[in-house]
Design a protein that fits this description.
The structure is a homohexamer. By secondary structure, chain A is mainly alpha-helical. Chain A has two domains: about 60 residues, AhpD-like (Up-down Bundle); about 60 residues, AhpD-like, CATH 1.20.1290. Chain A contains six helices and no strands. In chain A, helix 4 runs antiparallel to helix 5 and helix 4 crosses helix 6. Chain A is elongated and about 55 Å long. The interface between B and E is small, with 9 and 10 residues.
């Protein structure tokens, strides 16, 4: 078992290539990101993760930009550097402007602050929120 | 110093009442939530937090519904029970439908999953995301 | 294996009683908290945790109040309800005033906010902080 | 929208320069840290964050050193590399000795450990801590 | 949109019933847990989550007990009360003894402690771990 | 107080050398990892952490491989880069195969996802899990 490394298309198993092909076609990109190339070490997880992500991120009641910004909000809260970089790029591609980014970060910051104020002040849930 | 408890309007200091009044007027509600009544133990933090929240949550490049959903996404990620209850209520009031809620949770779930896959597989940032 | 429950002194093994005795003597209290009574399910972990905690929380370069407030800051950040309740009590006993509590929470809130702003804005470490 | 980058004083808008000036004067430093230079992408968030931080970190019931150590405890818990580097520097400047740093880290470590023991053993809050 | 509540089999849509049936059959249980009954508000997420979980938790290179203990370790770290309760039950059912539980918690506690010591001491990765 | 740096055996105090010697002997390795060399700044924390870790990680009801994988699961959840690298190496050394790693990551990912679904859907604990 060697160090983690990207599995390129040319070295990939047929089931991995099938996923790469679907990602490239769905996203209309020439190559897949490192995330998929590293996940390819486990073809089962690669396939399940891609199928889940495709289902979850497809436009539905929420538009793609909103979904990308929510993804970014979670990644910033968790401090995942790769995810912040890739979903900032994804959100920009989906239309996030500089002003939207600024407001997104402001909300994420406030939420992380008030989440802890609630914890520390041990605030009980209002009856009105129980239902 | 007694146990934490809500400070009601009738028992509040003038500077606390001023904040309560502004919250009620801004949100057009008859009373403030427990969050503010507990935070009122520290009038300085109460005032700063309200002023910051008002500035951050006002409609701008992002609409109020999007902001409430981002707030909820962070609160769910952090596991803050009070915040989840209050911002679910806030998002509903701002127009979140059941379908939107479902998709929001799906994105939050996937983001928390893939954030960890990235960590575990130690995925390096693609050059394309560096700028 | 039954549901988790407190192991009272009267039902405890000799090695558990020895730890309870040392806690009561060290803290000058008539009984130990639930934390220890639940941890007593595993006498090895009980003993190691108590010995470590005693060593860590003893006054040294930092006084007991400062240590309790740091413990509380971490517990609030992690959202551990039991730990927030017990270390708020511990900090008060060590001298935390209402004003100190307010400032402590304000710092914890700001730190959680700016930690995420740093993540989202992808701020590189200043050369001056590298050493 | 280009890659994130620092906004230097010479390139900054008047409202950004006003914040930089106040930081430099308040802290008596020749230049502001990267945190502010990156946050300057959003002048509204820059101004609010600085005003809040100035209010929160000013000496009050807690002294500056204690506040910096609490900030560091939170940043270490959240794993924010930039924040750990900058607030370690801030705490040292405020008087944190090597012995204090060692005890601070020991408390932060223990708190993160016992927070999880409490979770896993599902310890109910003692009646004595409820008030 | 009413308050969150469990969707029982008798009130469930056909696609929800199909998932409930598969869970009951796969796990050989008379009824599904609350997790599934609440997730049923969104049949798409319900189905995807069950299919993913079934694939992930099936015995493979790791046995079911090990998988349940890993699930519990993550849930304890995140402080998810429901998940801790359900996966403690799951692990016990899969064979976790009291001694195993004690050691599991001890490892989870130590990992959470040393994770923060590493952060605070800013330990660089050893060359030997890079590959 | 200078920048954090590794304390090598040749520069170490006698009590630090004693810990290094015990680590090398216990693990049968020629040198200790950076974690210990950085922790050596505080000989008390170094000694306590090593003694605790040795007690916790020794084979008991759980074998060393299982313990290393649990350690890795926590470290991935917390996003501690150093810990992920060192405990991936430790788990491999203890026998973790590529297939085991893939399944471990899949479980960690699912647990982090469903922990948040539980939070967001506010799922109450089943009566069957209460005991």
């Amino acid at each position: 078992m060697s160090a983690p490394s990207a599995i390129e298309y040319s070295d990939a198993l047929p089931e991995v290539r099938a996923v790469y092909d679907d990602i490239r076609k769905t996203r209309n990109v020439p190559d897949v990101n490192n995330f998929w190339k590293y996940l390819a070490r486990d073809p089962v997880t690669l396939k399940r993760t891609w199928q889940s992500l495709k289902e979850v991120m497809t436009a539905g009641a929420l538009d793609p930009l909103t979904k990308e910004m929510i993804y970014l909000a979670v990644s910033v809260t968790n401090g995942c550097g790769y995810c912040i970089a890739s979903h900032t790029a994804g959100a920009r591609k989906a239309g996030m402007t500089e002003a939207m980014f600024g407001e997104l970060m402001a909300v994420v910051g406030m939420a992380n602050e008030t989440n802890r104020l609630v914890n520390g002040y041990r605030v009980p849930i209002d009856e009105a929120f129980q239902n």
